[in-house]
Amino acid sequence: MQRKGERDEVPDDVEAVLDALYTAAPSDFVARREQLAASARSAGRAEDARLIHAARRPTLAAWASNLLLRSEPEEGRRFLELGQALRAAYQDLDTDAVKELSERRRQIVSALSRQAAQLARAAGHQLSNAAEQEVQSTLQAVLTDESAATRWGTGRLESALKPPSSLPDALPMASDTRRKRPGSTHAPASSRTAVKDESAGRRRRQQELARARDAAEVAVRHLRELQPARTDADALLQRARDRHGKARERVSIAEEELKQARERLQRAEQDRQDAETQDAAAADAVAAAELAAHEAEQEVQRLGSSNA
């Protein structure tokens, strides 16, 4: 246990210190930050102390999002890769493909936001409905916006992220933005080059679409495989909390009984002391009476001898 006034030894890697700091519960963030900054300052690492002190406490939703990334790094990596593939594939998809990938995106975001809420509960913090919505908003932003993905990937969010106002679901169909192919079979060389470029681009986009579908399928399957274990863990956590609550109740009852027993003991001790005082006073009175009786008897004998 750390003694009062004793400071932690801060690792040399300040980046690792900041990573760990942003997974600390928001209620402990400021105290922990100041403790670490003071330790770095005492060790002569002024720049590290400045960086640590500059860290800002995350909101509950941002903390849960950071916790999700740090607690499940493999899933976080898959999610970032999925977002990269989706952003590339969405640039030129037909309506059916957009609908398919959007549905998978919603499934993954919903599953991961529930997982973030479970991790927060396990760490002792219940997310409100508003906070859960902010976690979902953050995950949507990660999938649809490259800068948001980069920020979440650091694991040091300070506030929830918001997706772009125009999500990929609403992107215009590729057929509306493409140029029409020249109708003549004797098109100029520049037109033929453009057609070849468009064909190559279409093949590339189809490959990106296939990768996005594969990534989404893997992510959904992985989440489904993990869901039973998460459900069991959540149930186990609830049972542990129930046992903890009952044990705390028993401790409270035992503490109350101990308090009452100590009060009874204190009263009995006082009664014993009073009784001992009374007994001593009574013994003194008896001794005095015995002495007076003895002296009276001697006086009677003396007077009797004088009258004989």
What does this structure look like?
This protein has 308 residues and is mainly alpha-helical. It contains ten helices and no strands. It is elongated and about 165 Å long. The model is unreliable at 1-6 and 168-187 (pLDDT under 50).
In a few lines, what is going on in this structure?
The chain is an all-alpha fold and 308 residues long.
Tally of individual helices: 10
What is the strand content? under 5%
Distance, first to last CA: 93 Å
Rg measurement, Å = 40 Å
Protein structure class:
mainly alpha
- Give the total of beta strands: 0
| SSE order, one letter for each helix or strand | HHHHHHHHHH
Which range best describes the helical content: under 10%, 10-25%, 25-40%, 40-55%, 55-70% or over 70%? over 70%
The low-confidence runs, each spanning 5 or more residues with pLDDT under 50, are 1-6, 168-187
Task: State the major sheet.
Answer: none
Oligomer: single chain
- How would the global form be characterised? elongated
Walk me through the topology.
Blueprint: H1 14-21, H2 26-42, H3 46-53, H4 60-71, H5 73-89, H6 95-122, H7 129-144, H8 146-153, H9 174-177, H10 189-307
Helix pairs in contact: 2-3, 4-5, 4-6, 4-7, 5-10, 6-7, 6-10, 7-8
Keywords:
single chain, 308 residues, mainly alpha, 77% helix, 0% strand, elongated, disordered N terminus
